[in-house]
Fold each of these.
Amino acid sequence: MNILVVRTDKLGDFITSLPSMYVLKHHNPSNRVIALVAPLNEALAKSCDFIDEVVVDDGKSSVFALAAKLKPYNIDASVTLFSNTRVAFAQFLARIKTRIAPATKIAQIFYTHRVVQRRSEVKMAEFEYNLALTKELFSDIELSYPQPLLHFDDAQKVYDVFCANNDITKDVVAFHVGFGGSSDANWSLDEYVVLIKNTLLAKRYQVVLTFGPDEKELYEEMQLRLADEDVVYYLSLDGLVYFAKLVSKFRLFVSTSTGTYHIASAVGTPTMTFFADTLFASAARWKSIGKSSNQKHYMLPQDEQKRSAIFKEVSKELFTF
């Protein structure tokens, strides 16, 4: 069976779709899994051995162009993990016989199977809601998947070269200080400086700061703020696959709830992650696909006194890690 899995939004959202693609492929090895993804996630999708084909949707082409792009794949069924009217109508035009999606928005009229999930109630995590949709296609599907899910044969070589180029001789604790969303879900840069310096005081780890390709100004600012500290700065210009290989060998990855956190968890790296203190943006919904025991979650409240108490707890955790 040729199965289209649709998740055309951001990096973290895409990572939450990977277990669904894995179980669909492994339910029957003859299944051919075709992933419809945003351009950002193309290379990472192509690196997954449980994805057979990758179709890129830039979100800008007409619905008719998207339908024409899908039609040659002779798709038997689709599972749309996050829908909008454009991708829904394109699947209808591509004459995909079985079209499964959550029963939300006007887009649902274009699907043959509409599943009521009410994700805003957060009864499950996002990736668990995604997995649940696969049962509409195969009621007997096994929903378990390996953790970590992503593996790269040359990851150790990538890490060793990175360490050699940056004179790293200790295990790495990485900080990704970019906000990636609401400032309510992250520390200020001043607070991050304190956390980083506290980690360095323990003298057990090399601190690496990572930055996305569009965070050059932040990359430069943090170098000024930590000019006297032994910190390595990495501006990620080598693509997501390289980043995934590199982070898979880090000892700990510290960040807000953003796409890089989801990558770190997917490759098995322990994470310390900061979430907004709301149900919609909580760890309950956005915990990642890695082992729960490897994920340390902190909800950052608006209340300054409570926030200060959590900051002290995080600072102590990093010093004793």
Amino acid sequence: MSSAKGKYIALTLILVVIVVGIAAYYATSTPSTPQISHVRFMAGVSGGGGYQFGTALIKVWQNRISGVTYTLEATQGFVDNAKKMCGGVGEFGVVSAGEALKILRAEAPYGNCTSKVYAVFPLLPPTYFHVLVPADSPIKSMSDLNGKRVNILTRGSLTEQLAAQIFNVLGINIAPTYLTHTDAAIALSKGEIDAAASTTFASQYKELSLSKKLRVISLSSEEVNKIKNALPHLSFETFDFSTQYEGSNPALVPVDWTLVVARSDMPENFIYNAVKAIYENVGPLTESYPQAKDLKPELLLKAPVPLHPGVVKYYNEKNIKIPDQLLPKR
């Protein structure tokens, strides 16, 4: 071997070692880039709380996480979101805690899901199931809804599911309609329906209350006990609905947790960055979704659904203690 050829080979080997060393250094010393480039957010009914919250979250992420595009998808509701995510459609979605737990436990109708889901954020305000009627309506109690035209939102929505469960427990037979918030508000204003059930404070009803006074039906203690016995995952709270609907009233209603969840196969670092971006920018988030002013990491610990590993990583960094039952199953 000539001296020149030997020097060339030696120089080549040195360069290879240098390149490999640089690659190894950056692989271990710099944050990994997102492993996904497109995120679909299953939001729920257009105009509802899940849709509004999803819009606000995406706005923050677009400004804080580069290299990722986001699609906000209107669906038939939170139950529909759960079914879609069970089938692998959507990286994020708004679902009820009850449906998320069914997916994790592989309970019907979620026995063959492509992936599980874990909690990321709570939806604020909490899910107050409530029934709106015109203030001058003769309907004064839940039992008065028997035989009446009651909108329970679109098929597959959380509102439809809770309404069916609660009315069944109370022995109330309604004439259901399945209108969107927009169509239901119009129908209620014209007297085409007698009442409208909701699990969010939709803007359409807020706007309607400015021209037509609305009242929320309050549960009796007997009704609360019946629902508690049949649906133990629900809690109950007296909420002042005048804070949401102009001139409305305080009412005792069922409360359920609704959450933003992520598929369990979403990269831990991506979820960590997504969570960090939100909690470090609650101000901008609140500009788009005012109810987020009360968003704190600790709120999610009140819900019964285990946290995504990326959320756990962020909470550990902030020294927030997580109950064992909320840790994801590896």
Amino acid sequence: MTDERKKHQRRRRLFPRRGYVLFLIGILVGFLIFAFISMIFGEIGVKSIEFLYTSEKQSWIEEITPRFEQWYFETHGEKIHVKLTVAGTHDSVIQILWGNIKPVAWSPASSIWIPYLNLMWQKLGYEGEIATDSWNRTVLSPVVIAGWKTLIEEYNISSFRDLFELTEVFDFKFGHPDPRDSNGGTMAVALEFSEAARKEPSELHIDDFKDESVLDFVSILESKAVYYGKSTGFFGRWAVENGPSAISFFSVYESVVLDNAFKAKAKWGDSLVAVYPENGTLFTDHPFVILNASWVESWQSAVAEQYLAYLLDEESQLRAQQYGFRPVNPNVSINTTIFNEENGVRANIADVPKLSPLSGEALEAIFTIWIKVKNQGT
């Protein structure tokens, strides 16, 4: 057999193999094209709304939202997608004002930010309010003074004024998140000014932030601050990790005390407890605000209203308690296996006065005056 004939036979054996490989490649390419087309066209007809909310309730929201989407499909026979976008409260305000995020619904940690958003919205030249009065609370968590049970009982701490007076006799260590970064820090400082001026937060006026006696009160208390964290949840974890020698008292949400109570007792042999200020406190009420903005269509508002109703449903509110939040649905009872003194909190806080939020102007004044009253060494 000549060399040329051998080459020809080898080519005949190779061609079927090459044809088989090309056939497989063709199938694979076809499958990928089909999958891509299915993905693109499969989304056609799926309605979508964007929900901008804060990280404190992320675990709860991420559990509830797929349930809502399934419920919506079963109820209405069409698919809905809720795009979840997480941001810090102050950052969420900035993103809305700059137009970087255009959500249908917005949920800051507290309703104290609603008048502030409206104020800044109007300063940009827009007419009317982007966040109208037709908003609803979703869950609750009061701002508390957290501390170690031994110290709380020894010095009988029941308010921010008690802490102020304690500065004269005891060199304690204080702290809270930075108000420029954290809603928890903003609310803590607002309560300090409220106590200093002997007014409710809603009554604070621009002049109160210029009153030297008020500024002295806050400055003296803040002089005991050893740390300002960027996140309320992170601050609580830092406090428990470092213990009583690092910090004596600090202001956070009740839910943060619940999250850290077991670890605190196990690590330091002293309980972490929540003090509910006797003159009242602000509540993180996690409002659900359907924005009054040009980019929000009427059908999106309607879907958002149903989403809100689902968050307020009894089953959803029961699940919220697993993450340390109190329900706002009056038909849902407090789970006393979670909310109890063993976990450092009280089940019944009906006697704790609920204070009304600050005006947008007062909130803006806090950010302006903060540099003057903060502990410059932290």
Amino acid sequence: MPNKFWRVGKEELEYIEKAIDMGLMGKMTEELEIRFAKKFGVNYAIAVNSGTSALHSAVGGLGIGPGDEVIVPPLTFAATGFAPLYIGAVPIFADIDPLTFNIAPDSILKKITKRTKAIITVSLYGLPPEMDRIMFIAKKYNLKVIEDNAQCVFGKYKGKIAGTIGDVSIFSFQRSKHLTAGDGGMVITNDESLAEKIRKFSDLGYTTLKAKPGAHSICKEELQQPDFKRHECLGFNFRMPEVCAAMALGQLDKLDMLIQRRIAIARLYEEAIQGCDWLIPQKTPEDVEHSYWTYVLKLDTSKTNVSWIQFRKTFLQKGGEPFYGAWSLTYLEPALEGMRGLCQVAESLQPYLIQLKTNFESIDYAKKQADALAQTIDKLS
């Protein structure tokens, strides 16, 4: 069996030891924010304790509140749909494109009302959505755009890095993601006022916080006085732990390699499905670069009688790694069932999606996984 946590090693440990030696005073978190912003070519980055907290902070920082509506896709991790609910807003589910599986601009248009304040896009499985049309719609209707890039690091849309197109963007450092700190998240933006609001929202509304990391408006002597007022607004305690920030710095050093490894493994799967007309890969438009958090296929039941369960069972028999089916649509989960928003394309696609892993240390082992896929196709064809 492969080492499932192969991405973490001596580089991360060195940063963690340094963080401890420095007394866990927050310097690693500041360094991570500075370097992450530079890596993505943006002005501000705010580190938090999870991708979900990043989404929550982005929605809250934009001033969205009770009764407002936020348009979201239904096919993704539930945190995207939950984030508006955390501050009393309503998620409105727009349908997806049948080929890219990403949120569809035409469906977004149909969901806009007078109460709509924002759109949350998701770069699903590592593939950025149709951002030009989405940004045009947002500008026309005076809406904010939050890019959810929890599954995408350095995917590109028409040469632009995913996460640098909308008003604000988020990333996840959860264990399975391209860059991991065990858990954690990041918010990025070029808007100074928004960055300050997000930082305060995510860190107890501290008066001294500014858009830039470590930027305090007063000296420590003043802060230590008994009459000092610390909290100018309500905020949450979403701070990223210093040890997680240190680990993320080690990951950032080798991020390009981690991304290229997933892309290389996706290419092996692409070769394995050549000639098979009943497994349809997620479509990557010519002007988009996929970062392949996972490699996804649709089981086309119009061309085969093979069931999802039968495919998975055969794949495992041939030596394939266990894989997940797609998440249940967010609005069909027990927590949200009965909410507005029915998405016919998403409902028809979700039961037939196959999410193959791209997180392998060994290319030789990845080749065995691709071979298991080819053998599965051969047996079931």
